Amino acid sequence: MSEKAIFDGVTPNQMSFVTEHFKSHGLVKGDTTSGVATVHGVPMDYSYDKVSQLLTVAIREPSERMSVAKIQDLVGRLRQAHDKTAYDELGPGYNHVDVTMENNSGKTLIFAGDDVEDGVIDIKVQDLPTGQTEYIFQAKSSTASVIGCRGEVTYQIDPQTTVTMDYHLNGKAIHSFTVGIKGQNAAKYRVSARDTDAGYDCAGAYTYMRPTVVVNKA
């Protein structure tokens, strides 16, 4: 059974901003009046009445991945971003992912590359010796952007084995962080991530994730 999120007082300009944001990610089929948006693989029907300024979003298959609360948070953040008179107020850290790694692998982890889809990234540690824990990288929105940050970062455990972290943060409603090991010696290691929830800093001005990745011997 579908669930609905209803937003009142949505101006035509706000609605256009929200729609264009989703279109830029290929997530919307429709216009500023009605259509289908797909976020995290979950389809949602939306309709907007310019006269009443009422936006209705019906989530076809509500789940933990996409709920009424999450779509309310996402649309609310986009409306807030549209209403900013000075976009610099959003700052380059509007969405930021700060990743710490704990290395118990018995090997020195070596930065092996990144693939950034949205935002920018700052690799802070190139080599992480075994037995050490360091803040290894920060990903964040581009300046004045409300698109968020998304990409992946890879470290080499040994010449045949890598650990890759995939991150996506676009406001508190859309966030994910996963980590995995690939390669010839993957079975020799175990990897996990904690503290992968998203939160707000500065009274809601910034959205963050601060995961810790742990690499252990199997």
Structure description:
This protein is mostly beta strands. It folds into two domains: 3-83, TATA-Binding Protein; 90-217, Mutm (Fpg) Protein, Chain: A, domain 2 (Sandwich), CATH 2.60.270.50. The protein has two helices and 17 strands. Strands 6, 8, 10, 14, 15, 16 and 17 form a seven-stranded mixed β-sheet that branches. The N and C termini lie far apart (43 Å). 31% of the residues are buried. Residues 85-93 have low confidence and may be disordered.
Radius of gyration: 20 Å
The CATH topology annotation of the largest domain reads as Mutm (Fpg) Protein, Chain: A, domain 2
The count of β-strands is 17
* Share of helical residues: 10-25%
Which CATH top level class of the largest domain fits? Mainly Beta
The CATH architecture term of the largest domain is Sandwich
Shape: elongated
Which band does the percent of strand residues land in?
A: over 45%
The main pleated sheet reads as: 7 strands, mixed
The tally of structural domains comes to: 2
Oligomeric nature of the chains: single chain
Order of helices and strands: EHEEEEHEEEEEEEEEEEE
Mean of the pLDDT scores?
84
